[in-house]
Structure formats: C-alpha cells, structure tokens
Amino acid sequence: MNPAPNPRPRTPFLLASAAVASLALAGIAVQCSSPRPTEPARAAVADADGLRAWDVVYGVLQHPRCVNCHPAGNVPLQGEHLQLHAQNVQRGVDGKGRFDLKCATCHTAANTPGAHMPPGAPNWHLPTAAMPLVFEGKSKAELCRQMRDRAQNGDKTPEQLVEHMTHDPLVLWGWSPGEGRAPVSTPQAAFAQAARTWAASGCACPE
Ligand code: HEC
Ligand code: HEC
Fold first, then answer.
1. Is 118 within 8 Å of 53 (Cβ atoms)?
2. Contacts of 124 (CB under 8 A, 6+ apart)
3. Measured from the CA of 90, which atom of ligand 2 is nearest?
4. What's the CA gap between 59 and 48, in Å, rounded?
5. CA distance linking residue 169 with residue 176, whole number of Å
6. Tens digits of per-residue pLDDT, 56-101?
7. d(Cα 138, Cα 140) in Å, to the nearest integer?
8. Whole-number pLDDT of residue 44
9. Which atom of ligand 1 is nearest to the CA of 128?
10. Residues with CB under 6 A from ligand 1
11. What is the number of the ligand 1 atom nearest to the C-alpha of 184?
12. Which one of the ligands is nearest to 65 CA?
C-alpha cells in the first residue's frame, strides 16, 4: 500500500548508495550547472562558502518543524523528538493520507488555536510515496547529494529549490508553527540567504 523503501541506512545499503552517488555525481554536476556560470563568476561563491551555507541549510532541514513532514517511514512525525503521528495516520500514495484518514480532515489552511490542536497551512500533506524526500536520519553529505539530484528532489533545479525554500507555505509555516511548537531556530532571512549561497556555489556538498 505504501511502497516507499525503508531508507534507514544499513551497511550494504551505504556501500551501494556510495557507488550510486559517485556514478551520479557527473550528472549532478551538470544539473547543478544550470545556475553555475563561468569559472570566474563561480569563484564569487567559493566551495568553502557553499559548504558553510549548506551547514546552515542542513541545520534547518533537520529541525523538527521540517523533519516531521520529511520522515524516513510512511508516518508523519510530531513534536520535538520525532514521535510517530498519533491516530495511525499514514502517508498514503499521494502524501495526503489514506482514504479513511486524510490530512485535510484535521489540518486546515491555518493553525487551529490552542495547545495540541492541529497545525495548518495551505495544502498540508507529506511528499508522495514515489518521491518521499526523506530528511530524517540523513547525514550532511547524504542529504546534500539527495537534494541536488533532480531524480531525488522532485525534479527541481537549484533555482526552484531556492524558490521553494523561500516561498513555499509549508516551509514558511516552520517560522509560525502555532501554539506550543518551537519555530525553526535559524532566522528565516538567514536561511533564505544560505539557500541562495549554496545554490550559487553549484550546490557544494561535503565529501
Ligand atoms: C506539512 C508538511 C511539510 C512541512 C511542515 C515541510 N515540508 Fe518540505 N515538503 C513537503 C512536501 C509535500 C513537499 C513536496 C512538494 C513539492 O515539491 O512542491 C516538500 C518539499 C520540500 C523541498 C523540495 C525538494 C527536496 O529536495 O526536498 C524542500 C527543500 C523542503 N520541502 C524543505 C522544507 C523545509 C526547510 C521545511 C521546514 C522549514 C519543510 N520543508 C517543512 C511537506 C512539508
Ligand atoms: C485525526 C486528525 C488528524 C489527521 C487525520 C492528521 N493529523 Fe496531523 N496532527 C493532528 C493533531 C491534533 C496534531 C497536533 C498534535 C500535538 O500538537 O500534540 C497534528 C500534528 C501533525 C504534525 C506535527 C507538526 C509539528 O511539527 O509538531 C505533522 C507534521 C502532521 N500532523 C502531519 C500530518 C499529515 C501529513 C497528515 C496526513 C497524512 C496528518 N497529519 C493527518 C491531527 C491529525
């Protein structure tokens, strides 16, 4: 019903994914090269600055406000410590919940006032089962490579990633998450700046 593979790393999986990642790197470099201009301009954002920017972006992606909707399994997470969502809520094929338990049954376009009431933002849902965009449990290097790979990031160019991270309502919700939830700790403007710097570096990733 929910055919997403279990992405928790095991040793053979790690070896396999390292091989795949290195094979894919050539392709990735080309994909990230669309905003990657000529050599002199590229030097304007050195790899070191790109890597520092990625540290900031990664810190946000691992914040509970973000990782709760980017889980490794097929159940959204809730709270500050990656608890599984109550009521046996499941991703469903389209990320909007199973037919009998849709996200929209409880989550509306805005936060419901009150502690432990459902948070809300337009079109509240998880990524799809086919393109789960897992952040949970990914190392800095793994998540960086995943996010710049159009085969794993929902076919987004670096510009589209920046646009998403700076304007998508589900992302922006992380800074106004409703009563009883800590907002993302990195200021939103610092996150936006880091996302732009990372993309402009040609999506620099740690080894
Ligand atoms: C309510 C659930 C929800 C929350 C909360 C949420 N996301 Fe997402 N996110 C999604 C969905 C669904 C998609 C895929 C939709 C799309 O591509 O337009 C997505 C896609 C993304 C993508 C695009 C591609 C990729 O490679 O992952 C990024 C980046 C992202 N989210 C970052 C964040 C950040 C940063 C936060 C926290 C500030 C966040 N998300 C919070 C549901 C959520
Ligand atoms: C039966 C009602 C119900 C359904 C259906 C439901 N939720 Fe929730 N959800 C809640 C409530 C209530 C909370 C708040 C829990 C709390 O704060 O203690 C919540 C919290 C969350 C959170 C935690 C936000 C945070 O960062 O703490 C996420 C993420 C979430 N839901 C995603 C989803 C997604 C995605 C779906 C559909 C696949 C869904 N929910 C379906 C009621 C529901």
1. no
2. 103, 104, 107, 108, 109, 170
3. 38
4. 17
5. 10
6. 999 999 999 999 999 999 999 999 999 999 999 999 999 999 988 9
7. 7
8. 58
9. 12
10. 60-61, 65-66, 69-70, 95, 124-127, 133, 147, 153-154, 156, 161, 164-165, 170-171, 173-174, 184
11. 38
12. 2
Q: For the chain, list residues with pLDDT below 50.
A: 1-31, 33-41, 43
Mean pLDDT rounded to a whole number for the chain? 85
Is the Cβ–Cβ distance between 77 and 89 less than 8 Å? no
CA 50/CA 197 separation, integer angstroms: 6
Question: Residue with the nearest Cα to atom 12 of ligand 2?
Answer: 118
Task: Specify whether the backbone of 154 is left (phi greater than 0), alpha (psi in -120 to 50) or beta.
Answer: left
Q: How far apart are CA 59 and CA 72, in angstroms?
A: 17
CB 93 within 8 A of CB 129: yes
